[in-house]
Amino acid sequence: MRTAFPDFRLGAVLATSFTGTLSERHGDAVERIPTPHRLVDWLAVYGLTVESCTTAQLDLARELRESIHTAATAAAIQDALPASAVQAINDCSVQGQAAVILTPEGKRQWRLSSASCVEDALGVIAADAISIIAGERDGSLALCASPTCRAAFFDTSRSRTRRWCDMNTCGNRQKKARFAANQRKNAGSSE
Ligand SMILES: [Zn+2]
């Protein structure tokens, strides 16, 4: 079945998966949360279930997303963090009132203050971004090697040598491009 909206690119890290909802930032950018409903869908995937989302809340979410992208990119290249991005992330973190609870099965679950509180979900994402930008977690921020992507991603590989934000998309495409270039080179040299 064809879907009217671009698929999500789901990663293991909440904050950088969120920034990945706008992909190919340096190419033909793809907006993966084009409507409030798609943000609701995305949040549900990460256990941040809200019943509804307004256009204003979607705007706020996108503002947070771009602020995380800007701050994470600066952190990845060891640049100073832009003050406006830090402010926007902090505002979202302070505003959110989500509580973390432990289920009887021993799983972590988020409880939002109300079912329409997208701000609570954004607070959780902001806190996640803070933990990776501040270097609190095992891993380091890096930029995707794809020139049309350059997404900031959280590299948790032991050697910290991951090159792509996502192996299935950017990594694969690069591999295919290299293969095609080699084919051309080989074809050229056999003439
Ligand atoms: Zn990428």
Could you characterize the architecture of this molecule?
By secondary structure, the protein is mainly α. It has one domain: Jann2411-like fold. It is 47% helix and 10% strand. It is built from 6 helices and 6 strands, in the order H-E-E-H-H-H-E-E-H-E-E-H. The strands form 3 sheets. A two-stranded antiparallel sheet has the order 1-2. The chain has a two-stranded antiparallel ribbon with strand order 3-4. A two-stranded antiparallel ribbon has the order 5-6. It is globular and about 65 Å long. The model has no long low-confidence stretch (mean pLDDT 92). Zinc ion is lined by residues 144, 146, 149, 151, 164-166, 170. The site of zinc ion (ZN) has 8 residues, from loops.
Which properties best describe this structure?
191 residues, mainly alpha, Jann2411-like fold, two-stranded antiparallel ribbon, two-stranded antiparallel sheet, 47% helix, globular, binds zinc ion, ABATE, CGNR zinc finger domain-containing protein
The percent range for strand residues is 5-15%
Instruction: Kindly identify the CATH topology.
Output: Jann2411-like fold
Shape descriptor reads globular
Question: Strand-and-helix sequence, N→C?
Answer: HEEHHHEEHEEH
Superfamily (CATH H level) name: Jann2411-like domain
The overall average pLDDT, rounded, is 92
The biggest sheet amounts to: 2 strands, antiparallel
* Secondary-structure arrangement, i.e. CATH architecture: Orthogonal Bundle
Number of helices: 6
Classification by helices and strands: mainly alpha
Low confidence ranges: none
Q: Give the proportion of residues in helices.
A: 40-55%
Q: Radius of gyration over alpha carbons?
A: 18 Å
Mind telling me the CATH class?
Mainly Alpha
Distance between the termini: 45 Å
List of distinct ligands in this structure: zinc ion
Strand arrangement in the largest pleated sheet = 1-2
Number of strands: 6
Number of domains: 1
